[in-house]
Design brief:
- There is one protein chain.
- By secondary structure, the protein is an alpha/beta fold.
- The protein has two domains: 5-206, 3-Layer(aba) Sandwich (Rossmann fold); 211-312, Formyl transferase, C-terminal domain (Methionyl-tRNA Fmet Formyltransferase, Chain A, domain 2).
- The chain has nine helices and 18 strands.
- It has helices at 17-25, 52-59, 73-81, 98-101, 124-130, 166-189, 211-214, 222-231, 299-306, and strands at residues 5-11, 29-35, 40-42, 47-49, 64-65, 86-90, 107-112, 120-121, 135-142, 152-159, 205-206, 238-242, 245-254, 266-270, 274-278, 283-291, 297-298, 311-312.
- A seven-stranded mixed β-sheet has the order 5-2-1-6-7-9-10.
- Helix 1 (17-25) packs parallel to helix 6 (166-189) and helix 5 packs antiparallel against helix 8 (222-231).
- The chain is elongated and about 70 Å long.
- InterPro entries: Fmt (IPR005794), Formyl_trans_C (IPR005793), Formyl_transf_N (IPR002376), Formyl_transf_N_sf (IPR036477), Formyl_transferase-like_C_sf (IPR011034), GART_AS (IPR001555), Met-tRNA-FMT_C (IPR044135), Met-tRNA-FMT_N (IPR041711).
Length: 326
C-alpha cells in the first residue's frame, strides 16, 4: 500500500488513549476519524462527562463520532464515507457488526490486553491477576464476528510483577499495545504480515467483574485472597464485613511470619507485623482498608478505632450482593 495508512479508530477508556496518540503522531498514519461511546454521567453529581478517547482526539483536532449504537445504519454510512484502509479498535465497548468489519479495504484490527486465546472478553487484566497468572501481554488481532477469536497479527508478552495490581498492569499493557500497533500496522497494511489462526487449546474467557467477584471468602488460601485484592484495585475493590460492618480491603500482603492458630476470618493485631486476618492456610496482612462512608486509611488506624483485641470477618456474603465500603 503506497502512501499513508488511512485509519478510523474505535476506543473509549484510558486503555485506548495511548494507542490513539501513537497513531495520531505516526508519520505514516492518517487518522480520518475517531469513534467512541457517548458522553455519560459520572461522579457523585452525575455530571455528563466525555470519554477519555474523546478528550484525547480533541488534542489532535480529530473528528469524533459518538453513536449510541455503532450498528445503526447512519453510523455505518458515516464510517464508510471515511473510506478507511484499516479500522483499529482498543476497548471500544461495542461489538462491531460484520457490515462494519467489511468497510475498511485491509481489515479491522483489535488491540486486546491478553495473550490470546487466554482471557478473551471484557476484563482480561482483572482476570489475569485474579487467576494468579505470572505473565500476560497484548495481542493485535484481525477482527471477526466472534468474541476475540480472530487471527493473530502479533503479540508481546510481559511478566506480572508481584506488586502489580489491575491499575499498574493496565498502564503497562496500554503502553505495550500502542508500541505493538506502531510496530506492526505498517507491514500489515502493506500485506507483509500473514495473521495466524488462534490455537484451539488454551481458550479462557474474562467475564465482566460482578459484585460476586468482590466478596472475600476468608476460607480460601492466602495467595488467592491476596490476588483478589490486587486484581480488584483500583476498581471496584474487594469487599468484606467485619463484625457486620462493611469494609473495602485495598492492600494486603502474605504474613508468613505469623504462626498463631485461628479460624478463618479472625482479625488480630500482631506486634511487628500489623493487622492480619486468618485465611485457610495462613495469615494475610491488611495494609489499607476503607470502612463504609470513610476514606482509604491504614488498617492500623481502622483497628485502633475498633478498640478490640479480636474481630471476626463474616464468612457468608450479606444480602443482596454485599458491596462494602466506598
Amino acid at each position: 500500500m503506497s502512501g499513508r495508512v488511512r485509519i478510523v479508530f474505535f476506543g473509549t477508556p484510558e486503555f485506548a488513549v495511548p494507542v490513539l496518540r501513537a497513531l495520531a503522531g505516526a508519520p505514516w498514519a492518517e487518522v480520518a476519524g475517531v469513534v467512541t461511546q457517548p458522553d455519560r454521567p459520572a461522579g457523585r453529581r452525575q455530571t455528563l462527562t466525555p470519554p477519555p478517547v474523546k478528550r484525547a482526539a480533541a488534542e489532535f483536532g480529530l473528528p469524533v463520532w459518538q453513536p449510541e449504537r455503532v450498528r445503526a445504519p447512519e453510523a455505518l454510512e458515516a464510517i464508510a464515507r471515511l473510506e478507511p484502509d484499516v479500522c483499529v479498535t482498543a476497548a471500544y465497548g461495542q461489538i462491531l457488526p460484520q457490515r462494519l468489519l467489511d468497510i475498511p479495504r485491509r481489515g479491522c484490527l483489535n488491540v486486546h490486553a491478553s495473550l490470546l486465546p487466554r482471557w478473551r472478553g471484557a476484563a482480561p487484566i482483572h482476570r489475569a491477576i485474579l487467576a494468579g497468572d505470572e505473565r500476560t501481554g497484548v495481542t493485535l488481532m484481525e477482527m471477526i464476528a466472534a468474541l476475540d477469536a480472530g487471527p493473530i497479527v502479533g503479540a508481546r508478552e510481559i511478566p506480572i510483577d508481584p506488586d502489580d495490581d489491575a491499575g499498574t498492569l493496565h498502564d503497562k499493557l496500554a503502553a505495550l499495545g500502542a508500541a505493538l500497533v506502531l510496530e506492526l500496522l505498517p507491514d500489515y497494511a502493506d500485506g507483509r504480515i500473514t495473521p495466524r489462526p488462534q490455537p484451539e487449546d488454551g481458550v479462557t474467557y474474562a467475564n465482566r467483574i460482578t459484585r460476586a467477584d468482590e466478596w472475600i471468602d476468608w476460607r480460601r488460601p492466602v495467595r488467592e485472597v491476596h490476588n483478589q485484592v490486587r486484581g480488584l484495585r483500583p476498581w471496584p475493590g474487594a469487599s468484606a464485613q467485619a463484625d457486620g460492618g462493611p469494609l473495602k480491603v485495598w492492600r494486603t500482603a502474605p504474613a508468613t511470619e505469623i504462626e498463631a492458630p485461628a479460624e478463618p476470618g479472625v482479625v488480630r493485631m500482631f506486634p511487628g507485623t500489623g493487622v492480619a486476618v486468618r485465611c485457610a492456610d495462613g495469615w494475610l496482612r491488611m495494609d489499607e482498608v476503607q470502612p463504609a462512608g470513610r476514606r482509604h486509611m491504614p488498617a492500623a488506624d481502622w483497628w485502633r478505632g475498633l478498640r478490640r483485641d479480636e474481630v471476626r470477618m463474616d464468612l457468608t456474603e450479606p444480602e443482596p450482593g454485599g458491596r462494602a465500603g466506598g
